Here is the input.
Amino acid sequence: MILSMTGYGKASAEFQGKKITAEVKSLNSKALDMSAKIALVYREKELELRNMIVQALERGKVEFNLWVEQAEVANATPINGPLVEAYHQQIKSLCAKYDIPEPADWWGTLTRMPDVLTRAEVQEVGDEEWAVVRSVVEEAVGQLIEFRRQEGEALERKFTEKLDNIAALLQSIEPFEKSRTEKIRQRIMEGLQAIPEVEYDKNRLEQEMIYYIEKLDINEEKQRLANHLQYFRQTMRDGHGQGKKLGFIAQEMGREINTTGSKSNQAEMQNIVVRMKDELEQIKEQVLNVM
Here is the structure.
């Protein structure tokens, strides 16, 4: 089964008052193009996280985010009590020494002093916390892969519908194709009869008409297009990783349809070719999303 490159996954877990969240999104791309925003506390593990995601997703424009939220109590900025006491004593001493009035708002004065309000950032991540982080990232990536699988099923149904439409249109050409040989012959003969004074070799004329009709024959194009339709179906059954090959097959289908159109000198046949081109264009647009 084919997979889409489009996907989304998000997962969270609680660990010691923290909420760890991973989010990963992907869109189509010719190769793997990844951008990552990782919380500072987990930045040292960025290379390992990137390798995890690259191996799992293989291809696509991937956006990865990993952040952590502290619980309210843990998130409160700690007050440096000993430093507050030291500032208090120093200010009182200086006020007494230089005969300066003590501050009316001691609390406001002391909390504005340097380093009174500090936050101690955790610099190292323990094995237990790292295991939780890995689990969250793996769950988010797993959700994205499942999303890709579901999108791939939808794409496969869409491709099958369009291939069936092209095959049906190809069959609908046959009645017009059988009648046009006689119409070509008839037009040539009518043109010659309109010029009675012209003398011509009937055998040579027959040879030239056969050559002309053969140049407009589309049996080879029809056979090659039918083969491409079958090859496209087979390649879809081969599973994911076939996106580029499907794109090449669609290009070859386009060649045969274009050649059929250039050889079609009947309005009905040309209308059918235009409809085949429309169906193929929709395939080409969606093939860009296939892994």
Observations:
- Residues 127-172 form the longest helix (46 residues).
- The chain has three domains: 7-74+126-148, 78-111, 152-287.
- The chain has a mean pLDDT of 86.
